[in-house]
Amino acid sequence: MASQQQSSTTPISKRDRWQTPDWLYSWANNRHNFDVDLAADSANKKCENFIDKETNSLETSWVERGVSGWCNPPYSRTGDWLSKAWQEAQKGMKIVMLVPTPNGENHYRDFVFGKASEVIFINGRIGFETPMEDGSQKEIKGNTRGSCFIVYSRTYAEHTGLSTVDRDHMRGRV
Fold this sequence. Notes:
alpha/beta; Rossmann fold; 6-stranded mixed β-sheet; two-stranded antiparallel sheet; 5 helices; 21% strand
């Protein structure tokens, strides 16, 4: 019997605020040297230079804020963020996005395949984090979707490369 993918029961308002684990960001940052976090707030920013909700990243020029951007966008509007990343990459910025893996959704067809320089599928589910009242982070278990990095490069050659990375390798557990 084939298993079905479960749908999340967590409200979108909570899911959209989940944070990137430090080990995952460090792995990506070691490869791309980010200078701006494109979707953050003062509590979850990964770079000192960041664009917050009030500034409205989808309406702000990213290329004016940095050269290499990190983005773990709110997943409720992934298509809007992929569209914006493609537009900003056309202006010369390198952008790495952490998003759910594509499952035939049109925004991947429209803004990733044939446009991004690389898609890196992550083998193993990511436990995102949520802030606790004491300032610590709590890992969220039960992620129902896989994740991938979408890399938009200034030197894009009209071919989207596909690769994989193991979650435990990124965590340093291999």
